[in-house]
Amino acid sequence: MNLLLQSPVLAVVIPLLFFVVIYMVERRSWRLRNALAVLAPLASFVLLASNYTRVLAGETVLVEFPAILPPLGMSFSVDYLSLLVGLVVAGVWFLVAVYSTEYMVKEHAKNRYYPFFTLTLAGTLGVILSGDLFTLFLFFELMSLSAYVLVVHEETPEAMRAGYKYLVLTIIGGLALFFAIIAVFEIAGTVSFTAGGFVAEASGLAVLAFYGFLLGFGIKAGIVPLHVWLPEAHPVAPSPASALLSGIMLKTGVYGLIRVVFNVFGSEVVRAAGLDVIMLVLAAVTIFLGSAVAIAQDDIKRRLAYSSVGQMGYILLGIGLLQERALIGAIFHIFAHAIMKATLFLTAGAIIYKTGKRRVSEWCNLGRAMPLTMVCFTMAALSMIGIPPMVGFVSKWELALGSLDAGSWGFVLLLLLSSLMNFIYYFPVIQSTLFGSQHGKGESTATKPELPIAMLAPIVVMTLVIVFVDLFPQSGVLDLAKRAAAALFLVVK
Amino acid sequence: MELLERLYTNIYYLVAVVLFVIGFHTMLTHKNLLKKLMALNIMDTAIFLFFVAIGYRSGGQAPILLPGVEKFVNPVPSALILTGIVISVSFTAFALALVVLLYKHYGTLDSDEIIAIRGKKHV
Amino acid sequence: MGVSIMHDLILEIVNRLLLPFIQLFGMYILIHGHLSPGGGFSGGAVIGASLILYSLTFRFAKVKHRMDHDTSVFFEAAGALIYVAVGFVGLLFGFNFLTNRGVFPLGVPGQLWSGGMILVITLALGAKVSGTILSLFQELLEGGSDEHGTP
Amino acid sequence: MFSVNHAPVLIVVMLLTAGFIVPLLGKKMALGRILFLSVGLVVVVLSLLTTFAVLESGTIVYAVGGWPAPHGIELVVDAFAAYSSLVISVISLIIYWFVVFAPREVKHEAGYYALILLLSAAMHGIVMTGDIFNLFVFVEISSLAAVAIIAVKGTKESIEASFRYLMLSALGSGGMLFGIALLFMITGQLSMEYMRVALSTTAGQYPLNLLTALGFMVIGFGIKSALFPLHIWLPDAHANAPTGSSALLSGLVVKVYIIAFMRIAYMTLGMDLFYILPLRQILLVLASLSILAGSVFAIVQDNIKRLLAFSTVAQVGYIFLGFSLLTERAVEGAIWHILIHAIMKTLLFLAVGVVIHQSGYKKISQIHGLARRMPFTFACITLGALSMVGIPGTAGFISKLYLALGALDAGQAIFAVLILASSLLSAIYYFPLIITAYFGHDALPNIKEPSLAVRLPLAVLSLAILFYGLMPSMLLPLVRQTALLITR
């Protein structure tokens, strides 16, 4: 019983329990339901944060349940990487939950939304806090399937179509992962993450397994040939769900890849088998295509979704370079992109909530009606472009340095090019909303307040994080990312 | 000559196989359900013959160990086949009952027509 | 049911003459099951066939009066139950199920009372088989939909 | 005084006896129902006792009538038999409960119970007997009873389906009997254990006889357990049966024949012969085809029960695949799948039967939004479907895990890929069912959930799916022993 009370386990179990509790109480009181949905991520956040000092002292918190599901067993662990990502997940989830309480008022079927919102949190945290591939897989599937309910929430025909596509690709991804995991188990006899990896050599089956992982996690992360579901599924979901899908759940894909590359295969094996080249090629294609296609989108949520594809390319690049500095960039970008994209989706959601306009071309003069919202949008967009003081800059900087370490000038150019394209698709939005011409006079009269506080507060908080985290190095995010990367490159053989 | 002799010694098996094939052929080619049923019975009989022939010794008697009985038939196959016959009988009875019901429902015993009627309903 | 059965004098009279002998023969086969070829199934089948013959010759309703469907089903079940009961006797005496040797007096080989409980079992089987055969026949005649043809 | 050694024979005898008594009760149906359920319960207890005894002290050999093997009939209750018997008794008790409390679909209630009891008796007999002819007899009883519990529904379609099933089943029995005759010819024995001893010395002398025998056996059991090209009877039969019968047939009966085949294979042939003869390759190919064909046919079905029936064809393929891969973990997977598929398919058939009865809708295209009216039933269906697909955390995942690991152990990754591909296919045919039920326009408001007594078996099966999905360790020793028995 003691095992169950360990904080990483509790962080996963509490949302699971809340899922059940919410399901039971929601018919009685919607206030209690909303409160519980907000409380679940907060509780997980606090539980995770309680590990902070232990983890920073270099300890890895590990809880194992070998009795569950033999021969594989289950385990949870918290190290630098999972602490960082876990805190980001729970934190963003908490803010989005607060936002949801107001945003979802207009929506139908709220009694379905909140339980699955919480269940998806459980899945996502489970992925991040898992101590072995199998536990990761278990929660990965839980997350993917419960997210389906969020994707199709609107129940429009296009939502159902997008949802079906999402579902089929998710299943394919899950099966690819399943194959890869049992192949690894067959080769090595274990699936627990180990520093430096445990697959000794790149045999045929091992390479096949790696492709399986790439396929499975690649589908989730939206790596380019596998991204087809993403631009369909993210826009049709309700905005808070889109923020989570794009901001958080994509990251589980790359998080899994990081674990696979560094803790299952080990960077040496990956390099020796030439698998890094594949990742780099995919990353380059993803960065370029994701950014390029985003330019052509008029629907703001589709544009943001394609932008996410491009950004996942950055992280894959950071992994594929197999350089410590590049990996710092990648890990930091997990954090940075989560915050940025969540902010962007939430602000876009706020605008749609307020005006009902989804098309960028219709967004003239919104700056006057919703000044604070648009300032936040602008800040997040600037950060995406990579303007210096903000978080988006840091990850690009580290990635660029990592590319230079690896001696690949080309990637630096690619990063610059992609920043340029980011600029091309974000700037017009900023321009037309803040400085647009005075056509729609009637709309310019600002209504007070511009947004309910529950929606505005999360956006503002995240914007503050975007702007100021980098200015205060003692916040420790970059430090944590550096330690995580160093730990992943630690080879103990 | 040797072939004929072998055929002669295995005459029961041979007949069993021929019967089996006749039954099988009839079952596959005839459309009338009753004929199919008969064909199945022929097949069963063929197998019974085969089985019983395994234990048969020509000129043997019932294996009741009374004085004077020296050469007797292996009783095991016969006993088994008795059970087989029981099964076959109950199977036939049951199948006949089904045939009656089928005729009631479809008004025909032709398997093709029955399938056609069913197909029409489905479309 | 609307089964029209021929009212034929010759058949009736021949049947009246034959039936006792057929049934007697059936009984003989039953009782000597453990002494000579034959036994529960063969005897039961002969008796069952005689009953069918009887039903076919005389009006069905009349037969129904003598031995209706419920009765045949009863014989069917009773036969099986006696069989099982005999099996349990072995169990009660601490032997395996259906044990004969050591539980029942075996008697002298070749005589009627030999082979322990085999005779009882044969009779039970006879009841079961004849009951089943008749009940199947009646079932088919009545054209009900709950046929179960279990051996 | 009561020795646990008597338990196996009591299981069979009690079920048979109850099967004869129930129709005698006539009008007193309440008594009949009580007898029906209590016999089911006692059998569960007896098979549990048997299982513990087998786990503790090894195989129970029980000579019926006190006559030991070469002459008399023996029950050989090894780990496999105990396991199978346990699965059969537990799952069928759940189905008994459902049949008693669910709305009637069958006119002659007592006769129906009697048939179900006979079928159960025969299934227990099949998995426990050590005598090959006795096995044949039980197979016949079960076949007839299985056909009968389809025909009792009395609709046109069910009569037609059951007649076709009966004919093919009789053909299969003929094949089996021919096979047995040939084996008897070679060995002169009927006890499977003695047959194996005889075969191990004489097999080389009669290669043709042996091959022919096995060919007939494969055809016989192939028909009965719906192996791919011989599966044609199954979809109609299982789809047109009453709910309880569908569950019983798909969940247990089909698998019992596989168990019987495997028992003949390892008890009679021994695994050496299994390897030498081309049997294994043939089975691998047929099993793979079953998996693919069953899944592909299921995709195009609109009738829910037919969909489930085709899915059974695919799942039977899994079990055959696991057994014919013959690595320890693959066999464990197959043994798991016997239980797990029984749970899943029973759950699905019962729940779908409830849905059909409550709403009158039989097709996927009709059930838009029905889940809102029947949330509990559809939650069960969802769980069952997820388990069928093999989502981790559900029981279906366990068997797939072991099967896939076993395929890799055998060095044949292609079969692991096949299993996964078929999971994808099952996702493609199960998810539309769920999605249509949960989303889309509202169904008629007067559709209600069934009574609590009907929901109980569904709940139990759902919990079992979750339980075995996360904690399979309880049955693991039994499964492992069984696998060792087969692969030794």
Brief digest:
The complex is a heterotetramer of chains A (493), B (123), C (151) and D (488). With 493 residues, chain A is mainly alpha-helical. Chain A is 74% helix and 2% strand.
Describe the fold and architecture:
The complex is a heterotetramer of chains A (493), B (123), C (151) and D (488). With 123 residues, chain B is mainly alpha-helical. Chain B is built from five helices and no strands. In chain B, α3 runs antiparallel to α4. Chain B is elongated, with a radius of gyration of 20 Å. With 151 residues, chain C is mostly helical. The radius of gyration of chain C is 18 Å and the shape is elongated. With 488 residues, chain D is an all-alpha fold. Chain D has a domain of 193 residues. Chain D is built from 18 helices and two strands. Chains A and D meet through α6 and α7 of A and α15 and α16 of D.
What is the general shape of chain A?
A: globular
Number of helices of chain B: 5
The strand count of chain B comes to 0
Number of domains of chain B: 1
Give the helix/strand class of chain B: mainly alpha
Percentage of residues assigned to helices of chain B:
over 70%
Question: Main sheet of chain A?
Answer: 2 strands, antiparallel
Amino- and carboxy-terminal Cα gap of chain A: 34 Å
Helical stretch count of chain A?
21
| Largest interface (C-beta under 8 Å) | A-D, 31 and 31 residues
Structural class of chain A: mainly alpha
Q: Could you give the order of the helices and strands of chain A?
A: HHHEEHHHHHHHHHHHHHHHHHH
Strand order of the largest sheet of chain A: 1-2
Unreliable stretches of chain B, pLDDT < 50, 5 or more residues? none
> How many strand segments of chain A?
2
Average pLDDT of chain B, rounded to a whole number, is 83
Q: Please give the radius of gyration of chain A in angstroms.
A: 21 Å
Q: Which term fits the overall shape of chain B?
A: elongated
What do the pLDDT scores of chain A average to?
86
Domains counted in the coordinates of chain A: how many?
A: 1
Q: What is the CATH architecture annotation of chain B?
A: Orthogonal Bundle
Characteristics of this structure?
heterotetramer; A: 493 residues; mainly alpha; two-stranded antiparallel sheet; 21 helices; 2 strands; 74% helix; globular; D: 488 residues; two-stranded antiparallel ribbon; 18 helices
SSE blueprint:
The complex is a heterotetramer of chains A (493), B (123), C (151) and D (488).
Chain A: H1 7-25, H2 30-49, H3 52-56, E1 61-65, E2 74-78, H4 80-103, H5 110-129, H6 133-151, H7 157-188, H8 204-221, H9 230-236, H10 239-265, H11 267-272, H12 275-295, H13 300-320, H14 324-355, H15 366-369, H16 371-385, H17 391-405, H18 409-435, H19 441-444, H20 453-468, H21 477-489
Antiparallel strand pairs in A: 1-2
Helix pairs in contact in A: 1-2, 1-5, 2-4, 2-5, 4-5, 4-10, 4-14, 4-20, 5-6, 5-10, 6-7, 6-10, 7-8, 7-9, 8-10, 9-10, 9-13, 10-13, 10-14, 12-13, 12-18, 13-14, 13-18, 14-16, 14-17, 14-20, 14-21, 16-18, 16-20, 17-18
Chain C: H1 9-31, H2 40-57, H3 60-66, H4 69-92, H5 118-142
Helix pairs in contact in C: 1-2, 2-3, 2-5, 4-5
Chain D: H1 7-24, H2 29-57, E1 60-63, E2 74-77, H3 79-101, H4 109-128, H5 132-151, H6 156-187, H7 192-202, H8 207-224, H9 234-239, H10 243-276, H11 279-299, H12 304-325, H13 328-359, H14 375-389, H15 395-409, H16 413-438, H17 452-470, H18 476-487
Antiparallel strand pairs in D: 1-2
Helix pairs in contact in D: 1-2, 1-4, 2-3, 2-4, 3-4, 3-10, 3-13, 3-17, 4-5, 4-10, 5-6, 5-10, 6-7, 6-8, 7-10, 8-10, 10-12, 10-13, 11-12, 11-16, 12-13, 12-16, 13-14, 13-15, 13-17, 13-18, 14-16, 14-17, 15-16, 15-17
